[in-house]
Amino acid sequence: MVVDRRALISAPASEVWELVSDAALFARTAAAEHLWTFVVPGTPAGFVGERRVTLARADDDRISATLVERVDMEAGRSVVSRNLTNGIEMTSIIEPLGPSSCELTYRVRATVPKDELEAHVSLASASLDARLERMSAHVAGVPARSEHPARRDHDHVQQAAGRAVAVGTVAAPPAEVWPAVRTTGVDLLDATGQGAASVVALPDTPVGEVGEQICIVASDPPFVQVLEVVAQDVGRSVTVRYLTAPTRVDRTVTLAPSSAGTDVTVSIDFVAPAAEIHEHEARMRVVAETFLRCFQS
């Protein structure tokens, strides 16, 4: 599937290029509910090979995250980026029309099922038109049209709550286990074989306290998670919520002293479609057991 949408922008090509080539500025025109964007540590900001995470508000209690790599660039004219989690490629092309205007083209390239092509083309066209509208508003210095996140499909499906629990013992006192429990990111990812990972604290959130939000970026396979600390009893328990999960998922780790060292309980509370609750419980049990093994290693 290839979808092109273009618009006349009442600004010099050089000004629009600054917006398109600067991924941080470009991200602000990409989604009406844009929250924050950052370059993944260790990648070349502003050049081919840059990897960037962009966070947007999906709804009241959920964040959407994209991980994009810059794969090609012609200075002053075009930028090509690829979404590493879904493979969608987007090209931005600027053609000067005069000293104070240019044509901006957004092109999306993706592989989709043949029987879903029409729906995907319609969705991509609407998304690109909205982005062009926000870009036009941005260069004109006027507020973009207000938008509301789309209602999630699972809001119309009967939901059920589930829980998966794993219990084990660590041969060390709670004070020694707690630092690993409180590390919500990179150490555990390394232990579970997710490949090289980066952990970035979201700005304006209280580090080490309830309300702290952390973005975890892994490379193999590529994925992004945003976690929020929603409850904490320092030295004894911590609960984190996966803000990027499609439905609510909370993970609680509780420590209790024992004659063998520390009893560790990993509980995952989640919401899933009622018809799929048993499958979700099985998957979450594997996740809980994996985290438990990380603490025991």
Plain-language structure description:
This protein folds into 2 domains: 2-140, Alpha-D-Glucose-1,6-Bisphosphate, Chain A, domain 4; 155-296, Alpha-D-Glucose-1,6-Bisphosphate, Chain A, domain 4 (2-Layer Sandwich). The protein has 6 helices and 14 strands. It has helices at 13-21, 23-30, 117-140, 174-182, 186-191, 277-296; strands at 2-9, 34-39, 51-59, 62-74, 78-83, 89-98, 101-109, 159-170, 197-201, 213-219, 222-233, 237-242, 249-258, 261-273. Helix 1 packs across helix 2 (23-30).
Give a quick set of tags describing it.
297 residues; alpha+beta; Alpha-D-Glucose-1,6-Bisphosphate, Chain A, domain 4; 6 helices; 42% strand; elongated
Q: Which class of the largest domain in CATH terms?
A: Alpha Beta
Summed over residues and divided by their number, the pLDDT gives a mean of: 86
CATH architecture of the largest domain: 2-Layer Sandwich
- Tally the structural domains: 2
Determine Rg (CA atoms, Å).
22 Å
> Strand percentage, roughly?
35-45%
In terms of structural class, how would the helical and strand content be classed?
alpha+beta
Q: Report how far the terminal alpha carbons are from each other.
A: 46 Å
Main sheet attributes: strand count, strand direction, barrel closure: 7 strands, antiparallel
Number of helices: 6
Q: Write down the overall geometry.
A: elongated
Task: Write out the strand line-up for the largest beta sheet, numbering strands in chain order.
Answer: 1-7-6-5-4-3-2
Percentage of helical residues? 25-40%
